[in-house]
């Protein structure tokens, strides 16, 4: 990439002024993908031709003082977000050859802003997982250590940004799937407030929790991506018409009016020492920038994982009922003598879904079934209310709540794959923001002794991405972690 | 609340979910789903008497659009990905439902 601008804002400015052409930038990213992705497996689909055609069109159509916010910026899209005419699989066999007939709203918005979709990124099947090992197309590898997991479920989106295969990417975050891989790969990952970004065209996993968010190298780039994708959408009635502030202007570098809370009581067991050390050093940095820090309590935090897995799987069991062999490409071949509709459903789903997706459908179906609904699903929804009110209470005293993004750095591939429950515990710090609908961001805050990235998570008030981005940006500017790149 | 999932439970749930399980999947799910449910039962420790369940966190009605017709997917596009479309009559075809 020598000589070419890097990052969303730099690329956009260079293309807008004519300093660089969209085609040469796009070609450089495609070359980079060709060089490194064989080892990483971050992409399910690479859009060589359409990306270059689009780049050429942008170069042709560019006008003086072109104000489009992402002009010529190559962006990778998680493969659970619909792209018209481009295969969208959710990393599942059951959608292996599905080509959506429409674009997700976020894709329309990126394209209207001049962005170039460079490819579709590998992920855990239907976004269910924390390691990217649940993909039907093989795991993504962590560029900091190829024997380690990149995190999940948006593992490919995190790796694409960490290794300069895309200037930015989109992921989806149902229980940490943008933030956790961002932390494990050393990039920025933002989950906006529930309702801030349209999910129209996102393959639905758990509809009361799902949110689309950007992964970038810097907080400024994340702010710019959010500015493009945020806002109400007539095609998604859960989007909010809350005003959209100017996120880029919120990055003032001034932090001395901000108060942050640290839930010390949940930072004990299971958290790696080096992660805690990096977290404490980040607090010292923020303190030196004038941020006021105090301890807070989140009394129901220990119930977040069971609550999340009951609610998310219940919603998933309903959402994934649509993959039944009728509308979306895959259907098993049956002997016409024995073929029946129910046999076709059962065999198509048995063949098309991977083990983790089946496990979650089973768990969710059980939690919703007669006799267990009140004990599991309704109970979890009540506990969700308690978890949310803990945050409401804390936000009367502080502007943001900080904790590590993940209790450990990247773990070895295969280490947790045999034990689903152990894998679920990786999400201990991320699921609450989804249960409570809050915006949250992960930014790089250090490395372990064997050079694996560590992430700092900041959780904010609903629809106050401004303060969140300001805090994360102020921290980023005072540190150099974000400038480090993986050895690949 | 039951703490052990039986083979019959797993079979019943698989039928509800329209999933055909192999024998080894059935064994695996009995074990793994029991582990997960035992862990999940810690939510039962909490007294939630009178607590309103949260189904979603929206603070307003969300975005409602005017109830007007607008262009939608053509029948041809909607059928394009179907495994067994009847493009002439415009149907998704499925195996027989009734014997």
Structure in words:
Chain A has 15 helices and 11 strands. Chain A has 488 residues and is α/β, with parallel strands linked by helices. In chain A, helix 2 packs antiparallel against helix 3 (48-61). The longest helix of chain A is centred in the last third of the chain and has 22 residues, at 373-394. In chain B, strand 1 (85-86) and strand 2 (91-92) form a beta hairpin. Chain B has helices at 7-16, 23-40, 75-79, and strands at 85-86, 91-92. Chain B is 33% helix and 4% strand. Chain B has a domain at 7-44: Histone, subunit A, CATH 1.10.20. Chain B has a two-stranded antiparallel sheet with strand order 1-2. The two termini of chain B are 40 Å apart.
Sheet with the most strands: spatial strand order of chain A: 1-3-2-4-6-5-10-11-9-7-8
Largest sheet of chain A: 11 strands, mixed
Average pLDDT reading of chain B: 89
Radius of gyration of chain A: 21 Å
The largest β sheet of chain B comes out as: 2 strands, antiparallel
- Overall shape of chain A: it is globular
Number of helices of chain B: 3
What is the N-to-C succession of helices and strands of chain A? HHEHEHEHEHEEHEHEHHHHEHHEEH
- According to DSSP, the number of beta strands of chain A is 11
Q: Return Rg of chain B in Å.
A: 23 Å
The share of residues in helices of chain A is: 25-40%
The structural class of chain A is alpha/beta
List keywords for this structure.
heterodimer; A: 488 residues; 11-stranded mixed sheet; 11 strands; 12% strand; globular; B: mainly alpha; Histone, subunit A; 3 helices; 33% helix
């Amino acid at each position: 990439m020598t000589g070419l601008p890097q990052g969303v804002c730099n690329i956009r400015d260079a293309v807008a002024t004519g300093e660089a052409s969209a085609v040469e930038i796009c070609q450089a990213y495609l070359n980079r993908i060709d060089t490194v992705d064989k080892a990483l497996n971050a992409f399910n689909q690479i859009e060589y031709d359409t990306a270059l055609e689009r780049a050429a069109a942008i170069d042709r159509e560019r006008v003086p003082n072109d104000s489009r916010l992402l002009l010529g910026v190559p962006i990778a899209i998680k493969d659970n977000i619909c792209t018209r005419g481009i295969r969208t699989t959710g990393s599942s066999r059951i959608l292996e050859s599905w080509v959506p007939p429409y674009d997700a709203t976020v894709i329309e918005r990126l394209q209207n802003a001049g962005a170039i979709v460079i490819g579709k990124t590998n992920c855990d099947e239907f976004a269910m997982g924390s390691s990217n090992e649940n993909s039907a197309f093989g795991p993504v590898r962590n560029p900091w250590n190829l024997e380690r997991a990149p995190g999940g479920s948006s593992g490919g989106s995190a790796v694409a940004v960490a290794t300069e295969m895309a200037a930015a990417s989109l992921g989806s975050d149902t229980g940490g799937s943008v933030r956790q891989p961002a932390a494990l790969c050393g990039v920025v990952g933002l989950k906006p407030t529930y309702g801030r970004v349209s999910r129209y065209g996102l393959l639905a996993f758990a509809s009361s929790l799902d949110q689309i968010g950007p992964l970038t190298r810097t907080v400024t780039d994340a702010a710019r991506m959010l500015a493009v994708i945020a806002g109400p959408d007539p095609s998604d009635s859960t989007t909010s018409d809350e005003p959209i502030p100017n996120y880029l202007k919120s990055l003032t570098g001034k932090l001395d009016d901000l108060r942050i809370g640290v839930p010390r009581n949940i930072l004990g067991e299971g958290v790696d020492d080096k992660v805690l050390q990096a977290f404490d050093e980040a607090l010292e940095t923020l303190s030196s920038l004038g941020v006021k820090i105090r301890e807070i309590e989140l009394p129901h935090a220990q119930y977040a994982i069971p609550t999340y897995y009951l609610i998310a799987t219940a919603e998933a069991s309903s959402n994934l009922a649509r993959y039944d062999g009728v509308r979306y490409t895959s259907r098993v071949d049956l002997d016409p003598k024995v073929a029946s509709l129910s046999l076709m459903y059962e065999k198509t789903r048995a063949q098309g879904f991977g083990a983790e997706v089946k496990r979650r459908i089973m768990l969710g179906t059980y939690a919703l079934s007669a006799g267990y609904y009140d004990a599991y699903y309704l109970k979890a929804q009540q506990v969700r209310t308690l978890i949310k009110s803990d945050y409401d209470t804390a936000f009367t005293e502080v502007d943001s709540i900080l904790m590590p993004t993940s209790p450990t750095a990247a773990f070895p591939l295969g280490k947790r794959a045999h034990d689903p429950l152990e894998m679920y515990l990786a999400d201990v710090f991320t699921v609450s923001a989804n249960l409570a609908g809050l915006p949250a961001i992960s930014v790089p805050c250090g490395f372990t002794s064997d050079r694996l990235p560590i992430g700092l998570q900041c959780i904010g008030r609903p629809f106050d991405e401004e303060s969140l981005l300001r805090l994360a940006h102020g921290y980023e500017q005072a540190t150099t972690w974000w400038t480090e790149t993986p050895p690949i | 609340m039951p703490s052990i999932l039986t083979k019959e439970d797993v079979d019943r749930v698989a039928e509800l979910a329209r999933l055909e399980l192999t024998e080894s999947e059935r064994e695996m799910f009995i074990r793994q789903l029991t582990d997960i449910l035992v862990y999940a039962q810690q939510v039962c420790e909490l007294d939630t008497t009178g607590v309103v369940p949260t189904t979603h966190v929206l603070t307003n009605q969300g975005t409602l659009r005017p109830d007007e017709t607008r262009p939608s997917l053509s029948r041809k596009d909607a059928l394009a990905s179907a495994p067994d479309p009847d493009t002439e009559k415009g149907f998704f075809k499925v195996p027989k439902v009734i014997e």
